Amino acid sequence: MNSKPVPEPKASWHVEHAALEKLWSAIEQVFAGPVDCDRLRRLLSELAHQLAKHFWQEEKGGYFAEVLSLAPELRARIERLQNEHVRMLEVVEELSRKVDAPVGSDTWQQLAGEYRELAVLFQRHEQLEEEMLQQAYQLDMGTKD
Asked: Cβ distance 19 to 50 under 8 Å?
């Protein structure tokens, strides 16, 4: 029986996720306080940059290629996840554009709601990626027994 373990993520992966978590939290804190468009604009710009880097690592840095090499039947799931990458970056861009317009308290609350929807989508997305990796390794182990 093959006892191939699911690989531990690289140290850079942990650092990247910690930085993203800190950023998600910082944006949530901005929404918890009074309207501060300048700070929100800076944080959204950083979020766009960090997400693009994170998604690039997954798509071009080998994560998805590894999954495909282990379980080619997961190609459709990977394509859906890649489409979510595009959508999440579009939502950050849309939020940034809205912050550039005059923002009152009603608009601020609307932005906060849209941001929270994005944060939930990202968390769900990350969970689906983790499940996909687990499935790929289980499929790989199953074919080598």
From this structure: yes
